[in-house]
Amino acid sequence: MQLSRHLTARLAVGAAAAAVLVLAGCGRSTEPASSAASASVDDGPATGTVELWAPDGDATALDDVLASFKKDNPDLDLKVTLIPADEYTTKLQSAVAAGGGPDIAQLYTESQAQFIGGDAFAPVPDGLVDSASFFPGAWESGVVDGVAYSIPWYAYTYALVYRSDFAEAGGVEAPTTWDDVVPFFQGLQDGGADKGLGADVGWDVYNGQDVTQYLWQAGGQPMSDDGAEWTLDTPEMVDALTYNQSFFTSGIADPDAPGFLDAQPYFVEGKTGAMMTGPWVIGQLDDVAGKKGWTKEHVATAVLPGGAGGGVGAIAGGSWGVLADSDNADASWKLLRQLAEPETQVAQFEAYFSLPAVSSAWDDPAIADQPLLDAYFEQLQNTQTYPQVQTWAQIATQLGVESEAVAKGKQTPEEAATAIQSFAESLGTGE
After folding, report:
1. Which letter does DSSP use for residue 254 in this model?
2. How many CA atoms lie within 13 A of 145 on its CB side?
3. Residue 39 banded pLDDT, cuts 50, 70, 90
4. In angstroms, rounded to a whole number, what is the distance separating the alpha carbons of residues 346 and 370?
């Protein structure tokens, strides 16, 4: 189930990269996040009809997760439409451009700028939710010019997932700095892994986003502080590309395998000893291994190792927004307020393993009693948000292509940094 969920996210972001973006964009704010002043939402029942769109994935559990809310609001007719993930972004873009669409739409935290940058979505009403209750990056990614347009639903980041049995046999501990990384993965190979690291070689938007995390870890930023210029041809980007290249030149990773769908079987079979990946794998590995308890016996997690800028990760996940032309905004906001409640987000976790964007929900035993998730909680305290501009998915995809060329020795990190800067400047920010 969770493999399918992450695959739908990959497909949706890939579709966003290829789509022609038709919505107007706005600059990002450096001010603290806040909602916009708008009509207040009372505590009365939600009534009328609300149409909700979401890509097939996490939202498939909504009927169960919202059972108590629907019981408490019997006069609400909630119509949930699940759209194939590879079609979702294009359909939502078309609906918004035509002035139509649902009352509520799910957005991907890491790529929602193309929608909320214009006037298609309504500002979050003041006082509807407590912005401080969410992981900061999750909330900030929905803010444009100091105004919040979306409410976080689930959140994730990457952590290091590795074979604890190989680490013990190889006499190594999880790395904390870049300098420790290659020796650690070599230790996993000494302990039994064919390759220390299973690097995702899709060479797509996700690989470009991985390199962006390394850019942050090197102390760099992909854009200037005012969000007006791309800053990709820098010494820090060269360091990031060189670091990524070192996985392959050192022999700890294979640039030709595993592919995305092979990552977990390779890990279970010992063909690889580690992955830098999201939390969904924790709930999948027993099934892949065909043995209950395999994960507990063989797996450990750790936060990402850091360079000069520390072990920074990226915030990603799912958010909800209400379209500006909704016919039932009052009931829509009441529904989203319920989805932001800690107990609802715990219910979503139990139904679909979607990790809560509300930090207090992680105190629930359903999550707190799973120690392999601790590294993800810690990593979520140290994240940054990908550039919230319309062209980011296209630029990240091209960065993946450039990083492939470096990994395979077809160009230098310096050449790749120059190429991605030129590409980014040719696209601009979409404003």
Report:
1. B
2. 9
3. low
4. 13
pLDDT of 38:
53
The CATH number for 342's domain is 3.40.190.10
Q: Three-state DSSP class for 79?
A: strand
DSSP helix/strand/coil, 165:
helix
What percent of the chain is predicted at pLDDT more than 90? 77
| Reduced DSSP (H G I as helix, E B as strand, rest coil) percent helix, strand, coil of the chain, to 5 | 45, 15, 35
List C-alpha distances in Å: 404 to 1, 93, 241, 368, 401.
29, 30, 10, 38, 5
Do 229 and 193 sit in the same domain of this protein? yes
Burial call 318-342: b when 16+ CB within 10 Å, e when fewer: bbbbbbbebebbbbbbbbbbbbbeb
How many angstroms separate the CA atoms of 51 and 29, rounded? 31
Q: Are 52 and 69 in contact (CB under 8 A)?
A: no
pTM listed for this prediction? 0.86
Residues 397, 350: one domain?
no
Distance in angstroms (rounded) separating the CA atoms of residues 137 and 74: 35
Tokens standing for 187?
A: 């230790």
Judge if 167 and 153 occupy the same domain: no
pLDDT in tens, 12-37: 444 343 333 333 333 333 333 344 44
Between CA 359 and CA 336 the distance in angstroms is: 17
Same-domain status, 292 and 324: no
Are the C-beta atoms of residues 357 and 138 closer than 8 Å to each other? yes
Read off the tokens for 43. 């505590």
311 Cβ neighbours under 8 A, 6+ residues apart: 176, 217, 303, 304, 305, 379, 382
- Residue 9: per-residue pLDDT: 45
Percent of the chain with pLDDT over 70: 91
The reply to whether 382 falls in a domain is no
